[in-house]
Amino acid sequence: MSMPVIPVPPGLETELFCLGSGALKYLPEVLQQVFPGKAAYLVADENTWRAAGAAAEKFLIDSGIPMAGKYIFPGQPKLHPDYEYCRQLAEKFPAGCVPVAVGSGVINDLTKCGASLANLRYCCVPTACSVDGYTAAGAALVVGGTKKTVKCPAPQALCADTDILATAPPEMLASGFADLLTKVPAGADWVIADAVGEEPIRQDVWELIQGNIRRWVADKDDMLAIFDGLAATGYSMQMYGESRPASGAEHLFSHVWEMEGLTKDGEDVSHGFKVGVGMLASTLLMEFVLDHSFEELLPRMKAGLSVEERTAQIDELLKAGCYGDAPKNTALGKFLCGEKLIRRRKLIGDIWGKLQSGIRERLIPYRQLREILRTAGCPVTPAEIGLSTEQFRHGIKTAQLIRHRYTILDLLYESGLLDEAIAEKVSQMEK
User: Fold this and answer.
1) I want to staple 132 with a disulfide (CB 3.0 to 4.6 A). Which of 233, 244, 294, 397 is the partner?
2) Quick check: 23 pLDDT over 90?
3) What distance in Å separates the CA atoms of residue 131 and residue 272, rounded to the nearest whole number?
4) How far apart are CA 104 and CA 97, in angstroms?
């Protein structure tokens, strides 16, 4: 029986994707084909080692693939995506080896970045259908206290065994489903950025995700469709060179909550569950735009701030001191005041109808989206992921600070309407 290979778009850093039932036994063939003559260095944690690492090692040894070593992180407490772990891995990788990440999102990101630091390319063996980062260029890591996407090459090869993916805890599939579903409002965020002239839509990347997303999320239990969508999302990030095709405001909320050390009942909240709740919030903010004409909102718009006033506001939002130094500089770098703000507000007013049409075309309505998530076993309220009302609302405002990427948050902030939108719409999630 031949190796089950999934087509990969041409021109990407990823060259081979093996996906299917029993695919792990083809791992030696994957390495021989993509990394001929190189020794394998396995990276896992205690949980993913039991799920797939030990079997992967046996397949490799039995096939005569040389082994350069292995590193197994503890299974508890839950592993964090700390950049320092990448440095440690890079020092452990022998020259010329092929690191093989056996695990889900964090193991993959740590190995991806560690391999890059060591000037190596790596292979990914996913153990759960839980995130869209497997095939992405770049790793989501905490660097100096700030959650960042660190640039590094995507895996050169993947070997995903659907039998192993199916044994992962069901909440991991639910998390992956929620992460994939966020591409819907993320697309609306890109429509907004395109309309105001901040980031034009690149059509080939857009079609890859927005042309297929409804099909991928049609069935919450269709693991193959969900994994296909998550993998394609990673490809889109490779094509575009960063994560715009895969993330909007909802991911910014998640980054803030992660930097704040969000836990629920003492456990870290999964990435998919955080962005799922964030997706509901960003959808409500977009529905605020849909609910009102620009003219009726004019009396509700706050006056623009001076640089000094905005600086004080930013310092207040960041006073917890857990966000690193980058957000303040980022926020001030994109802050508009004076004539620049006047011109931006005029532009927003001129295109308000176009914005409404573009958002409406992309968006799944909040109530329908909430039901989809609830049916899939995903949390739908801030409290369900451990957020107080205060922390939830604070996170929405703080998320606007941490990236240059233009989203619904920037549109509302620049219009002087972010507080209004939060007060009017977001309270629906807190019930």
Assistant:
1) 233
2) yes
3) 7
4) 21
Burial 259-271 (b: 16+ CB within 10 A, else e): bbebeeeeebbbb
Residue showing tokens 């297929």: 212
C-alpha distances out from residue 42 to 48, 158, 261, 300, 330, Å: 11, 14, 29, 57, 37
Percent of the chain with pLDDT over 90: 91
Closest CA to 49 of 122, 114, 91, 104: 104
Are the CB atoms for 235 and 9 separated by under 8 Å? yes
- pLDDT value at 206 more than 80: yes
Torsion region of 417: left, alpha or beta (phi above 0 gives left; psi -120 to 50 gives alpha): alpha
Q: Which of 215, 197, 199, 198 has its CA nearest to residue 207?
A: 215
pLDDT tens digit string along 275-322? 999 999 999 999 999 999 999 999 999 999 999 999 999 999 999 999
Other Cβ atoms closer than 10 A to 226:
25
- Among residues 185, 193, 165, 187, which one has the least CA distance to residue 236? 187
Q: Are the CB atoms for 120 and 152 separated by under 8 Å? A: no
pTM passes above 0.85: yes
Cα Rg of the chain (Å, integer): 22
HEC per residue, the chain = CCCCECCCCCCCCCCEEEEECCHHHHHHHHHHHHCCCCCEEEEEEHHHHHHHHHHHHHHHHHCCCCEEEEEEECCCCCCCCEHHHHHHHHHHCCCCCEEEEEECHHHHHHHHHHHHHCCCCCEEEECCCCCCCCCCCCEEEEECCEEEEECCCCCCEEEEEHHHHCCCCHHHHHHHHHHHHCHHHHHHHHHHHHHCCCCCCCHHHHHHHHCCHHHHCCCCCCHHHHHHHHHHHHHHHHHHCCCHHHCCHHHHHHHHHHHCCCEECCEECCHHHHHHHHHHHHHHHHHHHHHCCHHHHHHHCCCCCCHHHHHHHHHHHCCCCCCCCHHHHHHHHHCCCHHHHHHHHHHHHHCHHHHHHHHHHHCCCHHHHHHHHHHCCCCCCHHHHCCCHHHHHHHHHHHCCCCCCCCHHHHHHHCCCHHHHHHHHHHHHHC
